[in-house]
Amino acid sequence: MSTNTGDIEKQSAGIAAETTVPNADVGLDSASGSAAGSTDINNATKSTRDARIFRRFLAILNYTPRRCRYDPEKQFKFNMALNLLFAFAATFTVANLYYNHPILNILAEDFNVTYERVSIIPNVMQAGYASGLFFITPLGDLFRRRALTLGLILFTTLIWLGCTLTKDFTVFAALSFVVGLTTVTPQLMLPLVGEKYEL
């Protein structure tokens, strides 16, 4: 009788242990699941915030002042002031390709390279310009030309800052190529005039 009672107690203890172990596993699973869930929520929140910032940046870049928006009732005339503005903008933008020509000897001294080596800078910029004509100018048919033009001007300005701050000739040559690549805004400005304004 006592033996049967001891066996029953052992069996009930074993059953209790079996039932408590899965509960512990479930607790661990739920804890790891909640940690993974909070990580997923944090990642989703971060990606949503990044997307919101990117959309805000695009909205600012795509903004068109009310007086420059198309209005069939009131056509915006391309007057002499705008003509001069576009002329100066195109001139100074294209001049990016030629600013380095008169100072090649100074660049050679500053970077401590030979004249032969520094002479690749104009070639690199012209190669970048040709690449920009081939790869970036067609984007004017896919994106808003005003936003694309402003974005390219802003990006080119930042690259010029990099050119002025670098001390390495190879980096300077690479940045010069990028400057040439993005110096295609005059090719975007002319279609912009034809698209927006009545001449």
Automatic annotation (TrEMBL):
GO cellular component terms listed in the entry, alphabetical order: membrane
Key words, A-Z: Membrane, Transmembrane, Transmembrane helix
Localization: Membrane
Pfam families referenced in this protein's UniProt entry, alphabetically: MFS_1
TM spans (from-to): 76-99, 119-140, 147-165, 171-193
Membrane topology per record: Multi-pass membrane protein
An annotated Gene Ontology molecular function: transmembrane transporter activity
Ion transport among keywords: no
Name listed for the protein in its UniProt record: Major facilitator superfamily (MFS) profile domain-containing protein
Species name: Orbilia ellipsospora
